[in-house]
Amino acid sequence: MPTTAPIIETIRKSLIGALTDFVNESGFLAQINMIVELVYELAEYREEDIRFFPSVYVVKRHDDSDTLAIIAPGADRIGLKTTEMIEGCGAMILKDTAAMADSGWSIFVDVSDATLRYGLFRSEMLPVSLSSADHMADPDAKSGSGILLRNCARNCVELVSSDGKRLEFGLTATKPTPNSVSESFRKLAIEATRSIPETQRDQALSYIQRLIVQVCQQCHGTIIAVLRSDIQELPPEYHDGVRLEEPVDLLAAFHELKGDGTAATLSRLLARETLFRGMIQSDGITILNSSGQIMAFRVFVKPNEGEQGKMNQLNIRGGARSRAFELMKLRLGNSLSCVFFRSQDGNTMCEVKHD
Predict the structure, then answer these.
(1) How far apart are CA 288 and CA 271, in angstroms?
(2) Residues 208 and 317 reside in one and the same domain
(3) Do 191 and 137 reside in the same domain of the chain?
(4) pLDDT score of 130
């Protein structure tokens, strides 16, 4: 009996089809196979079952200018290898660099039509400095041609081009959400800096957003809430947790470092970031105010009688964290202006309401 040869398909064809327009408009069509490999690998990159979250900057010279020098002026750069554009080069790049692309280091891939040179560079010099991502997103920076690729959630990769275009690509079967993961982080950062003086807000917003992204990448899931800007004390409904006698002021330490740039102020800011990271990794809810201060952590909430009736009408899927998120959403506009949710598998949502 004659047999029919099986049809063999992989996700590669679909990835190329989905990414072609973005890559072509960014000027990297000749490198699309490498970029497809990077997207696939970055979706959930692991070595020895340890997850890594490297940022990869694919760049090329523009009008004889060094794109990498523009987005990371004066930064240390460590070249590792020059090679031809071959099958599997995306995976090879990450294998050689991903474990070191952390704590301010990122990966660069400097390409031409047929060859590439890759290595590591300092994309973040100090917490108060503009990052390479900020430089590349600046429309006035004239940063040449580049694409930033980075993991933003489990099985989800964000691509940002030097001309301001963004694409969030999820390697999942779930329907796309109305807001991107990066937009959810930005909404949270906006609310956590709403009371900062306008002259300082842009830098504070950039810093808080970058910090929260870094912390949430490595946590097992979290809820972060922001109090309304007119609320100065922690409301009684959030007293079941660890209430700080004095708020931990992240942005005060940030501005101190920006003011004098000493080793002591850098150490103070990094120490407060460490506390924040530990609070986020704890069970329960972390509560901030609109000045970037941490008010409480390990907070657990219960619905009152009126809230319980509304909760009973909701079709809530998930565990205790999902139920707590739905309850906190009911309090938006009352005690809260914002509630942010990140599940263990990377599902990310942010709700904002002002009354």
Answers:
(1) 17
(2) yes
(3) no
(4) 74
Judged by DSSP in three states, 168 sits in: strand
How much is the pLDDT for 269?
94
Calculate helix-pair angle for 198-217, 181-192, nearest 10 degrees: 130
- Write down the pLDDT at residue 144: 66
Report d(CA 31, CA 276) in Å as an integer. 39
Predicted local confidence at residue 339, as pLDDT: 97
The structure tokens listed for 69 are: 């020098």
Q: Cα–Cα distance between 120 and 103 in angstroms, integer?
A: 12
- Is-contact 323 303, C-beta < 8 A? no
Residue that finishes a domain, picked among 127, 143, 170: 170
Contacts of 338 (CB under 8 A, 6+ apart): 187, 188, 191, 192, 225, 226, 332, 350, 351, 352, 353
Which two structure tokens, joined as six digits, stand for 164?
């301001």
What are the residues whose beta carbons fall under 8 Å from the beta carbon of 297, sequence distance 6 or more? 241, 242, 244, 279, 280, 282, 284, 285, 286, 287
CA 159-322-211 angle, to 5 degrees, is 40
Q: How far apart are CA 284 and CA 95, in angstroms?
A: 36
In the numeric block, which tokens belong to residue 59?
Answer: 């760049």
Positive or negative, the CA dihedral 204, 210, 215, 219 is positive
The pLDDT value given to residue 351 = 95
Residue 293 near residue 249 (C-beta atoms within 8 A): yes
What's the CA gap between 27 and 111, in Å, rounded? 11
Q: How many separate helices (H) and strands (E) can be counted in the chain?
A: 11, 15
**289, two tokens:** 């105010």
Identify the segments of the chain with pLDDT beneath 50. Answer: none
The answer to whether the pTM exceeds 0.85 is yes
Structure tokens at 96: 């050689």
Same domain, 160 and 192: no
Residues 96 and 195 in one domain: no
Q: Distance between CA 346 and CA 131 in Å, rounded?
A: 24
Number of folded domains in the chain?
Answer: 2
Same domain? 316 vs 219 = yes
Closest among 139, 168, 165 to 25, alpha carbons compared: 165
